[in-house]
Every structure is written in C-alpha cells, then in structure tokens.
C-alpha cells in the first residue's frame, strides 16, 4: 500500500523528541525509564533491573484457567446454555495472552514479583501459541465435564473439589511447559557503585511488598477509558461481564472520562518521569516499520476516492465493530507546543528493535484522539472529581463489548 503514503508528511516527520529545533518554542519532555525501572530503580540503587515477565505469564495462565472454570459454574447458575452467545463467547477464547491492567494488579497482589534472572524466559513463554492450544483444549474438556457434573445435581462442595483436581492438571501442564516458579529466591546483584549485594531468601510477594510497592503502588493507579458511545456517559464507571483472571480478585473497573483528562494526566505523569500504560487500536493509520502513528500518514482517500475508518465517528466505530483496543504500550515522552499542549508522544512498544526507532514509536495528538481508549495513571495526577467517580457502582457491559477486547 505504498501508493497511499503521504510522501510530503514522511519527509517532514520528526521522530526524535530531543532533537526538535529550540526556536519552535516547543517543550519536549522525555523519560528514560520504563515501567520496570520505575518499580525498582530507586530502591535497589541499580543501573538496570528487569523483572520476570515469564513469572507473571505462568501465574496468569494458572489463575485464568481457574477463573474460566469458575465462570463455567457461573454459566450453569445463570441458566446459560452451551449454545448461547455468552457461553459460546467464553469457550471461544478461554486462555488468550491479552490482558487488562487490573489483571496485572491481581497477579502482583497475590503472587508478587521476581527479577528476571530468578525466573528466566523459556521457548514457551516467548512463543506461546502451542502452549495456549494445549491448555485451551484441556479447559474446554473440563468445561464439558463440569457441565455434566452440574447437570447431575452435585453439591457445591463436589464441584469445587472437582475444580481443584482440574487445577492440579493445569498447574502440571504449565510447570512442564514453563518451569515451576520459585516460592522463595535469593537475588544477587551489583548496585550503581559496583558493590555486591545479596537479597534473600525472600518470597516473591515479600519482594513486591518491601522493595517495589513503596515506589510503585498498584493501589494508587486509576484506569481511565474514553468511551464516547451515547449509552456510556463520562463520569460513570463500567466493568465487563466475566472479565478477569483471579477468582475473588480486583474487578476490572473503567472510569470513563473525556479525552482532555487523558491528555493532561499523561503530560503531568511524563513530566514527573513516570511512564503511562495505555491501550489502543494499533493497526489503523500506522506505519509499523518506521514507527509512526499519524492519521494523515496514509492518504487512502486520494488513492481510492472514498473515506476509510475516519469517515465514522469514534463512537460509531465502537458500535459497528470498526474499532476496539487490541494492544498495550507505554507513553514515555511528550512534545508540547508553546501553550503547553501535547502535539506528539513517544511510545515504547514491546515488538523488539526491528520496528520503529529501536522499539520506540511516535504518535501524533490527532491519532491519539482517534485510537487511544485506555490509560492508567497515578491518582495524584487526576482532579478530585475524577477520583471520586471511581467510587460509583459500575455499569456491567456484556462480555463481548469492545472495552474488554484488550484481554482477548
């Protein structure tokens, strides 16, 4: 689709925030740390620390399996049939790699964190398709067995006992594929002064509580969405039916706010050297190789003589299935104009150095306003009325709602 490229824009596009001309009266704010650094850097006095993503991956698969099996029981109690839309939706994707912010919060609160060197990546954690297929197949088999058991009128105690036996199988499969995660670990490292340090034995939960939570507290983060559909007014909260990963864990709650609240909270966060996690629709109007998110970058209208995507409003794209969140990344920098308004953002992606500028992308304000749907910021960067909205009883959206798509 090279013919649709806006060549003039490509030549003009500036991707390096710190090299913008000074005479433009624009202020460029960049943070050099990522989310993992933010969690640990100040406490351990390290030049660099990488937390184990594989550790959270393991527990997400185990916990999400348990959550799914308990949802099967919930479907029976609601009178849902296997052929019904809700149960069919749950069976279609019982175990995907996607997730919401609250799911990470649940895992960290229950299982803690470990440094990467204490639980390394494996072939399976880096390429999970076959593992997901195997475990998904087993979970569907278990769903059938549970429904058969429930149809016989078994007691709640018998049902829970059966789920516990099923979870032993799930844990065994995950351990064989990923390796059994540590219950305690000893961490050896060199600090900024090249001095040797040894921490432990310590549990992953103790590691989080003592060494991460004081500088990065998940409890202080607020999940904002920008849902412009007429049925979902700003200032209210929303959740998605059957969306979660830990039974009895923190529910996924979205605080619906105007896009201006998003923009200001991101600017304030990045200026304070705090990256911002966000969810967006990643494939529209973007050039992945060069790392550019820009609504004007591709001129499809000139090529085909008709509008694409942006011919519909943001709300209509959500309603008619043209937009949904599909990917999560980090805002690590923002470029401001002379009035202090953001004009573009620096984005850290997780797709490796072969995309963008060594994994970093540039996003324009216009693209942001069209395709960014969710951000997570510390409550200290939000107005009191936005924080107060979080205490409202959330409206339950259906399981297939686009606001829950990031988890699938």
TrEMBL record:
In alphabetical order, the GO MF annotations are: cysteine-type aminopeptidase activity; cysteine-type endopeptidase activity
Q: Membrane-spanning regions, if any?
A: none
Q: Which Pfam families match?
A: Peptidase_C1_2
Q: Where in the cell is it found?
A: Cytoplasm
Name the keywords, alphabetized.
Cytoplasm, Hydrolase, Protease, Thiol protease
Q: What is its main location?
A: cytoplasm
The entry assigns this protein to a family as follows:
Belongs to the peptidase C1 family.
Identify this protein by name.
Answer: Bleomycin hydrolase
């Amino acid at each position: 689709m090279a013919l649709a490229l806006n060549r003039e824009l490509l030549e003009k596009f500036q991707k390096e925030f710190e090299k913008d001309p000074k005479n433009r009266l624009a202020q460029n704010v960049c943070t050099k740390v990522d989310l993992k650094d933010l969690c640990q850097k100040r406490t351990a006095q390290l030049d660099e620390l990488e937390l184990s993503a594989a550790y959270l991956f393991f527990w997400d698969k185990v916990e999400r399996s348990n959550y799914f099996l308990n949802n099967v029981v919930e479907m029976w109690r609601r009178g849902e049939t296997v052929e019904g839309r809700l149960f069919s939706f749950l069976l279609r994707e019982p175990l995907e790699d996607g997730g919401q912010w609250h799911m990470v919060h649940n895992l960290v609160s229950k299982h803690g964190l470990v440094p990467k060197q204490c639980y390394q990546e494996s072939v399976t954690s880096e390429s999970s398709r076959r593992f997901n297929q195997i475990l998904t197949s087993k979970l569907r088999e278990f769903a059938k067995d549970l429904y058969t058991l429930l149809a016989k009128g078994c007691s709640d105690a018998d049902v829970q006992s059966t789920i516990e036996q099923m979870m032993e199988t799930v844990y065994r499969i995950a351990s064989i594929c990923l390796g059994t995660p540590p219950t305690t670990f000893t961490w050896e490292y060199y600090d900024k002064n090249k001095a040797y340090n040894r921490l432990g034995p310590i549990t992953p939960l103790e590691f989080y509580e003592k060494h991460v939570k004081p500088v990065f507290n998940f409890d202080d983060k607020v999940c904002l969405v920008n849902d412009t559909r007429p049925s979902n007014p700003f200032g209210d909260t929303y959740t998605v039916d059957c969306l979660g990963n830990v039974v009895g864990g923190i529910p996924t709650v979205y605080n619906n706010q105007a896009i201006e609240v998003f923009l200001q909270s991101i600017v304030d966060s990045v200026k304070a050297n705090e990256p911002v996690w966000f969810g967006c629709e990643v494939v529209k109007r973007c050039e992945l190789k060069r790392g550019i998110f820009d609504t004007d970058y591709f001129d499809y209208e000139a090529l085909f003589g008709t509008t694409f995507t942006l011919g519909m409003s943001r709300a209509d794209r959500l309603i008619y299935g043209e937009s949904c969140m599909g990917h999560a990344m980090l805002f690590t920098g923002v470029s401001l104009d002379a009035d202090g308004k953001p004009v573009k953002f620096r984005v850290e992606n997780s797709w490796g150095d072969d995309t963008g500028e060594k994994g970093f992308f540039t996003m324009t304000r216009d693209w942001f306003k069209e395709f960014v749907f969710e951000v997570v910021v510390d409550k200290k960067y939000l107005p009191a009325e936005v924080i107060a909205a979080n205490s409202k009883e959330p409206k339950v959206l259906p399981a297939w709602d686009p606001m829950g798509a990031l988890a699938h």
